[in-house]
Structures are given as structure tokens and as C-alpha cells.
Specification:
With 250 residues, the protein is mostly beta strands. It has one domain. The strands form 5 sheets. Strands 4, 5, 6, 7, 8, 9, 10 and 11 form an 8-stranded antiparallel β-sheet that branches. A 7-stranded antiparallel β-sheet has the order 15-14-13-12-20-19-18. Strands 1-2 form a two-stranded antiparallel ribbon. The longest helix is centred in the C-terminal third of the chain and has 10 residues. The two termini are 16 Å apart. The mean pLDDT is 94.
Length: 250
């Protein structure tokens, strides 16, 4: 379970790989080592107690996520239907209470899921994704690049009240490259150029960023990610992964 906390002074980030013996899965719940998530009525509860890498700081607490809008339709990302993406709660609110560090806050939230029958790198060379929450809607774009060179672009608006609009008009723009040289592309409305506000994660194969972008005449702040699976499978990146991702004893 990946836990990331970004603050004005310092960040905490934890991601520990564990064997199948550390996983317990039920219809409405999953536990991975000392952390778990489960549905409790209409709320998704996430409880975690993890250790950051590489310095071993503890990050522990609970998040309660309340969906405001729901999407019950998973989308196939590849031609064979082996990989799907499901924007379960494109608009939600969250209540966060941490014990390590001691911190409480609440705000807007988002919940989606990816699932597949094979490793991601078997089907894709990479993707870019973004989610921007405007006043009247949340807009999600997802641009996957398949191994055969074809692409699947999703540009979907989730309106307040539950209406969903596909094929929101967007154009591809570039954001500044990361320190590791990753290209950052984003699909936005034609009204104004996107802005990079902050880089949250900057790794050889993945970046997560805060951006400001416009869609359907509204301009707001959101999240953007870039994933290069070509970089991920390279030997030098695989060598570096254990320094960032702790691996529990099997």
C-alpha cells in the first residue's frame, strides 16, 4: 500500500512490497501487512501503519473517503481487454486523521482502480493521466500508449449530479521535463495553457505533479502523472527500486 503525504516543509512516502502471505482479501475488504481498506456503509475506510524509505519514519493513521459521484463502468485500456481502469469515485470528500505525524485535515478526494491479467509493461509503454476538479465538474484524462504503438485517450467529465460526458474537447500540451528527463504531456482544453505548480514525485520512470488547467471554460488545480514503463523495465531502474520501495521478508 502506497502512502504519500506532501507538506510545505517535508514529505513522507511509504511503499513496501510484501509476499502473498501478507495479503488477506474479502469481497469488501483487503489487508496488506499492517494496513487495510474496507467499505463501511457508503464510506471507504483506509487504515495504515507503514515505514518510509529510505530513513524509516513512521506514517500511520486513518482516512475515510465519502464518494459524492460514482461511476460503475470499468473501461478497457488495451485491445484485448486484459487491462481495465475504473474511476470509482471521481468526486469525493475525505477526512484524514494521522497519529504519525499527528495531523488532521479534510478536503476533496478521488478514488479509482486499475486491474490487469498481466504486467503493465506487457501491454503498454507508458501513459499520462490527470484529474482536475472544477466547480461544476471533475475532468479526467487518460492517455495510454500501447506496445503496438496505438493509443487510447479518455477525456471524461463527471458533472455534479451524476451526469457523465465522454470525449471532452482537449488538445495535447507539454509541461516542463522532470529532472530525470521524463516528458510530461497533458491533455487540456484549448482555453489556456496548463501550468506546472509543483512536482510531487520525480523518479526515473514516474512523476506526479500539481497542475493548473482549463476544461470547458473552467480553470482549476489538479493532479497529473506520467509513467514510462520502458524506463521501469530497464536494468538500472530495477537496481534502484529497493532504495525507494522497501521489501518485507518473504
Amino acid at each position: 500500500m502506497n502512502i504519500a503525504l506532501y507538506g510545505p516543509m517535508r514529505d513522507r512516502w511509504a511503499f513496501t512490497e510484501r509476499g502473498k502471505g501478507a495479503v488477506q482479501r474479502e469481497e469488501h475488504a483487503i489487508a496488506i501487512g499492517p494496513s487495510a481498506m474496507w467499505w463501511e456503509g457508503d464510506a471507504l475506510v483506509i487504515e495504515f501503519d507503514e515505514v518510509t524509505a529510505p530513513f524509516g519514519a513512521r506514517i500511520a493513521g486513518r482516512v475515510r473517503l465519502y464518494p459524492e459521484e460514482r461511476d460503475g463502468t470499468p473501461l478497457a485500456l488495451d485491445a484485448e481487454g486484459k487491462h481495465c481502469w475504473w474511476p470509482i469515485a471521481p468526486a469525493a470528500r475525505a477526512e484524514v486523521e494521522l497519529t504519525h505525524p499527528r495531523l488532521r485535515f479534510r478536503g476533496a478526494a478521488y478514488h479509482d482502480a486499475n486491474a490487469g491479467d498481466e504486467p503493465l509493461e506487457a501491454a503498454f509503454t507508458g501513459w499520462t493521466w490527470s484529474r482536475v476538479a472544477c466547480r461544476e465538474r471533475a475532468v479526467v484524462t487518460y492517455d495510454v500508449i500501447r506496445r503496438d504503438g496505438s493509443r487510447r485517450l479518455v477525456s471524461r467529465a463527471f458533472e455534479r449530479g451524476g451526469r457523465i460526458h465522454d470525449d471532452v474537447p482537449v488538445v495535447e500540451r507539454s509541461l516542463p521535463k522532470t529532472r530525470w528527463g521524463l516528458d510530461r504531456r497533458i491533455h487540456v482544453g484549448v482555453e489556456a495553457a496548463p501550468e506546472l505548480l509543483r512536482t510531487l514525485e520525480d523518479t526515473p520512470f514516474y512523476s506526479r505533479s500539481m497542475v493548473r488547467a482549463s476544461y470547458l471554460g473552467e480553470r482549476a488545480v489538479g493532479t497529473h502523472e506520467t509513467l514510462s514503463l520502458g524506463r521501469f523495465t530497464s536494468r538500472w531502474v530495477q537496481f534502484l527500486l529497493p532504495f525507494r520501495m522497501k521489501r518485507a521478508p518473504r
